[in-house]
Amino acid sequence: FVLDPDPDAPCKDVSSKFFIGDITDFDTVYNFGQNVDVITIEIENVNADALEKLQQEGKQVFPQPDCIRMIQDKSKQKAFFRDHNFPTSDFIIINNKNEIAENIDFLPCFQKLSRAGYDGKGVVKIENSNDISKGFDTHSVLEKLVDIQKEIAILVARNIHGEVSVFDVVEMVFHKENNLLDYLMCPSGLPNEIMEEASSLAMAIINKMEMVGILAVEMFLTKDGKILVNELAPRPHNSGHHTINASFTSQYEQHLRAIFGLPLGSTKSIMPSAMINLLGETGYNGIAKYVGLEEILKIEGVFVHLYGKKFTKPHRKMGHVTILDENPLILRQKLNKVKDKIKVIATT
Amino acid sequence: FVLDPDPDAPCKDVSSKFFIGDITDFDTVYNFGQNVDVITIEIENVNADALEKLQQEGKQVFPQPDCIRMIQDKSKQKAFFRDHNFPTSDFIIINNKNEIAENIDFLPCFQKLSRAGYDGKGVVKIENSNDISKGFDTHSVLEKLVDIQKEIAILVARNIHGEVSVFDVVEMVFHKENNLLDYLMCPSGLPNEIMEEASSLAMAIINKMEMVGILAVEMFLTKDGKILVNELAPRPHNSGHHTINASFTSQYEQHLRAIFGLPLGSTKSIMPSAMINLLGETGYNGIAKYVGLEEILKIEGVFVHLYGKKFTKPHRKMGHVTILDENPLILRQKLNKVKDKIKVIATT
Question: CA Rg, chain B, in Å?
């Protein structure tokens, strides 16, 4: 049973029962929950109060509502990292724009909305006092700029028996323009000790939260070699799409194993992989058309995942492509070829 | 859009529109076909006349109705093999039981119904004149017994542009009791020249048929090293279930690529694999229960596919398990462990 606000959501054809409704509305979520025994989420921007009530009334809700609530609020996430000594960039939690001016010594920084930020939205860079007018006048986090060497992510799962398992660290490369993930590489190519540190950190975080389900932990590797936790996502995540084809267990299967109390599956990579997001090209709005599809389908180890969204718009996530190859150099060549060939435009 | 006679068919929750109806009935199939542009099948026991009419009226029907019709009738299949010099066991086509007695010199043999045989049903062994009374009194094929060393199968696909591609040869091991596939191994472990001969044969067959779609070719390797074609299935087949996890392209994706005119995908194996059918245990009828599931889910490289059928009965195909391992010895150990642990019984 799936609840989604979009009547044309891709999940509608692959669910036993499809409910259309606002997932941020208390009654909608609460009533939906009456139909099922176990409830999970695919996006954290959901009514956590309704989930908490369902949990109190005996439904199994994973990830647990308190975990969702903490992650929904960037200021709470940052406070959680600080309270438990998980390394993260320096920050100040503020209530309004005036408090930016009061912390002028803290600039340059990013200001991030405490709530409702998503995929690069709700973030503004405040370089100096001239930028304060661009700032948000609401509860938010000021985050010190970090000298980033690489952005990495790691998926970790914990089942209801407390078993924990991490996937391989991935390197994420973001679009400069839209701040969305452009592609990822797995393995990350980082030294083993860095990968082990990242894995230990991810396991420590999920254990401290006592969360059940899959958790994506996004991190920065700084230019001076330090790992800082950036943010968490308590659900299958863009940084794990490659696991569908490239790991013995996919992030989706791992999440289901975790919440159903099954043993967690092997997270070992079957082969080195890359994953590219298929984003709607700028300048195109309308019925989606995939240019170059036939060409990339000819390449061995290329797995095309289209989400079945009818309409494209600039930067909309329309699908992803996973690429497998034993040879990292050939993997990189295939990646470049796929990036070059496939475009999501609109029919005229 | 899917048409299936069973209101609880597993496909009902993974289709945009689900139609319940008799796939052997002309009107049902013809009317269903009006809703769609491209029609394919998942079982060959379907009304081919309706498909032919749909094809004549401009619908795309793959595999083509004449291919389905030939394969539906074992006597036509055997005649096709003979007419085109594809090696197959000696046979005689008969119309009734009396003709068994007329061919007493041909015994011992198997008698196979020309039509409606499936999964080992519709087959009887006629050793000598005493067995004639057990024979079918209808149109059928008498097939000479073959000294079988191994049973093998090969999947071959052909797209609408005539591009052809074969998967790796698999060895199939059948249950002695129920004649259903017990497990398969890929690669087969046969010498290269045998595998190449089998591949060439499969390609020659699909080319001669000019069939579009995926075709399973079951073959015997005789004790004196000859390959004989046993029978064809013009659809995704039990001998190809391992491809979901073990090949760069699954048999299902390959079939869709073929009928949509897309380039065929790489059929290379990602890793050696075994596949076990999960059959309902004898002695159990009722709501299915999977014993040993948690234990096998702990094994790396074990992929469990349950078909979501509510009821089990003896020998019913309830699912399958694919096992991957680089090391053939460990693969065999995992196979034995999975076979030993997992059982489909019924709740009391």
Answer: 20
Chain B residues closer than 8 Å to A160 by CB: none
Write the residue in A15, A263, A270 that is nearest to B270 by C-beta. A270
Whether residue B205 contacts residue B229, with contact meaning beta carbons closer than 8 Å, is answered with yes
CB contact under 8 A, B248 and A15: no
Q: Which of A248, A257, A264 to mutate to test the interface with B (most CBs of B within 10 A)?
A: A248
The CA distance from B183 to B175, in Å, is: 9
Tokens representing A226? 């330090």
Chain B residues closer than 8 Å to A294 by CB: 262-263
Q: What angle do CA A326, A332, A334 make, to 5 degrees?
A: 85
- How far is residue B277's CA from residue B273's CA, in Å, rounded to a whole number? 13
pLDDT, tens digit, 9 for 90 and up, residues A107-138: 999 999 998 755 567 899 999 999 999 999 99
Query: By the 8 A CB rule, do B63 and B212 touch?
Result: yes
Q: How many residues can be counted in chain A?
A: 348
Residue of B nearest to A248 (CA): B301
Cα(B121)–Cα(B179) distance, integer angstroms: 9
Q: How many CB pairs under 8 A join A and B?
A: 42
Q: Which residues, in sequence order, are CB contacts of B157 under 8 Å at separation 6+? A: B164, B165, B166, B206, B213, B214, B215, B251, B254, B255, B257, B258, B264
Looking only at the bridges linking them, the beta strands covering A148-158 and A140-144 are: unpaired
| A-chain residues near B14 (CB < 8 A) | 13-14
Q: Find, among A243, A308, A242, the residue nearest to A277 by Cα.
A: A242
Q: What is the pLDDT, as a whole number, of residue A117? A: 57
Whether residue A301 and residue B271 make contact (CB cut-off 8 A), yes or no, is: no
Out of B13, B265, B271, whose CB is closest to A297?
A: B265
Q: How far is CA B249 from CA A13, A245, B152, B165, in A?
A: 23, 11, 20, 11
CB B68 within 8 A of CB B51: yes
Q: Which of A47-56, B5-14, B34-43 has the lowest mean pLDDT?
A: B5-14
Q: Show residues of chain B in contact with A271, CB under 8 Å.
A: 270
Tally of CB atoms within 10 A around A150: 16
DSSP-derived secondary structure for B69-133: HHHH-HHHHHHHHHHTT--B--EEEESSTHHHHHTGGG-SEEEEESSS-BTTBTEEEE-SGGGGG
* Rounded average pLDDT over B89-117: 92
Nearest CA in chain B to A295: B263
Tell me which H or E stretch contains B330: helix B328-341
Chain A residues with CB under 8 Å of a chain B CB are: 13-16, 248, 257, 262-263, 265-266, 268, 270-271, 293-294, 297-298, 300-301, 324
Q: Distance (Å, rounded) from C-alpha B245 to C-alpha B322?
A: 7
Whether the CB-CB separation of A122 and A116 falls below 8 Å is answered with yes
Task: Reply yes or no on whether the pLDDT at B117 is more than 60.
Answer: no
- Residue for token pair 């004649």: B179
Structure tokens at B270: 């990602």
Nearest CA in chain B to A265: B298
**3-state class of B138 per DSSP?**
coil
What is the interface pTM, i.e. ipTM, of the complex?
Answer: 0.92
CB neighbours of residue A310 within 10 Å: 9
DSSP A26-52: HHHHHHHHTT-SEE--SSS-S-HHHHH
